[in-house]
Queue: 2 jobs
Job 1
Amino acid sequence: MGRIIYVSPRTKAPVGGIRTMYRHVARLRHHGFDAYLYHVDQGYRPDWFQEDVAMLYTADLRAPNRLRLEPDDHVVFYESASNSIRFFSQYKGATRHLFCQNHFLMFDALHDLGAANWQALDVERCFASAGIIARAAETCLGFPTVPVVPYAIDHVCFRPEPKSLRIAFMPRKRPDDLEFIRRCFSGAFPDLAHVAWTEIHNQSEERAAEILRESALFLSLGRREGFGLPPVEAMASGCLVAGFLGIGGREFATDANGLWCEDDDLVGAALKFGQAVRWVESQDSAASTMIDAGRRTASRYTIETMDAALIKYWREATLSVQPQPLSARAPRL
């Protein structure tokens, strides 16, 4: 059985999709697969989460007149991996996969490279991180079957603790909208001016989880999401969640587990969030009921569930029986 090489984006910012790639590699190696994370910057390892995975860099793969790849290797691209696709095109023998975590980005590399479809880039298989993404990829990308490997939440890290009346939020997807929403909130609910707002931005996974554990509420600012992990992590942490789903959040959202509003209904978001704060502050039973529903939703996203789908996908993709432990194999590099 060959190697499985996930190509990471170059960005070093904390992003849930990148965290998921590293988690896949770690779990694959745990189950005996020869899996690696490829990063273009020599020696780079992320410092914003704790996951020690096997890394490959350009120098590890480059050889005179070719790449150090074998026919039984597998290379996993992300949606906008244009430069890495060019790099790996120096060798045609390995099997290419697309791991699609956001259907809003699924044409990015095709546009950059002037390709009609992913198959023209020698990508043979696709898998996705949510059902809504898989359905889009099957319909629009020409892959007959797109298996889903669902997200996993670290429930040891993202867990409820005693709360303070604090609003946690991640502004990355809607920085301008956030100011509008906060002004609407202040105008409509002047009596709630004492409520603290805590930003989560460019912080470690542990620090983000700590803020969620301590915060009673989470304002979801998703936009054009493939899934949208932050509100589910907030649910797991026992927050009352309100705000936007970014389309992809329809995968997990119900009327019971959050106060959701239509995308770009900024005034509506402020009003719903004011309602959420009032529920929490008055200890209304509606708040505890919704928080409990959110925790039940988040409980579906476990390492065990992800592992089952991940291992099934790669066993089928590699046509492999039970892989040998890594300690029993000679090194490839």
Note: Residues 320-333 have pLDDT under 50 and may be disordered.
Job 2
Amino acid sequence: MAYQFKGLYITEEQGEFKANLTELSTADLPNNEVLIKVAFSSVNYKDVLSASGNKGVTQKFPHVPGIDAAGEVVSSRSNKFKTGDKVIVTGYDLGMNTWGGFGEYISVPSGWVLSLPEPLSLLDAMALGTAGLTAGLSIYELINSGVTPEKGKIAVSGATGGVGSISVAILSKLGYEVVAISGKKQNDFLTRTLGANAVFTRQDFIDKYDKDIMSKMELAGGIDAVGGRILSGMLKATNYNGTVTCCGLVASPNIETTIYPFIIRNVTLVGIDSVEQPLNHKEAIWKLLANEWKPTVLSHITKLINLEELPAALYDVSQGNAIGRYVVSHG
């Protein structure tokens, strides 16, 4: 049985890409194992790239973006899921070349699907989404490498964005002293809402920590979501045996540094990818996010929008104007 549904439909016409809210059919979806009615999705920078026709993200058009989805199983050919199960899908090929969460239905392989961990709601799952998973994976690496709260300060870049804001909120909840770095003047949001202990502008952080070959050791570690000189400065200022994670490139995909942090201070740089993580590791992180790591301020950093408001939200994210998380409701 085919269902009609609405979605943000991206078409290519003579090299130009257009986004329209369009009536679609589940008959147009791939014939995968699990059909899901999407309740919520979220807006990520990769969705901006897909919606604007970036062929490094999406090669096949027309297309429905949305790399995150949470909803209920409509039908399943897998014995792992049954009709009515509440589930999450993030990453893999969803929203890239497989129609994604900006449509009211998705059809995906069972190996992409996770049961919604209790006591998380579908809305909160998408308030976290790929950004929350990436933040969780980053924090997991810090903790797993022995960077505990008593070791010192943690720097977080892109702190008003999705990964950064959730990272700051979780780290603060876990008792870490957090140094937030942002290109926006949002000190009250960073300190009062998220719980950061100190705030740097990007330029102030660069001026303090990336001017010389090495900096004074002032950080136990860092979570970098922007790349470039911010990442370089984090590495130079990290304590002996510290760890820095990197997951983004909104400032730059390049890093100009030396090997000194690695060979003199034994600093570890860990790359974070949330897309192709093994499902069992994703599941472990999601259980932490649903329970002891769940930010107490999650509702305060989330803006709920509908499909009609989605193009404006995508534009905000593309211009670097978004603060916190946009969640798309299909209700």
Note: Residues 4-116+298-329 form a domain with the Quinone Oxidoreductase; Chain A, domain 1 fold (CATH 3.90.180.10).
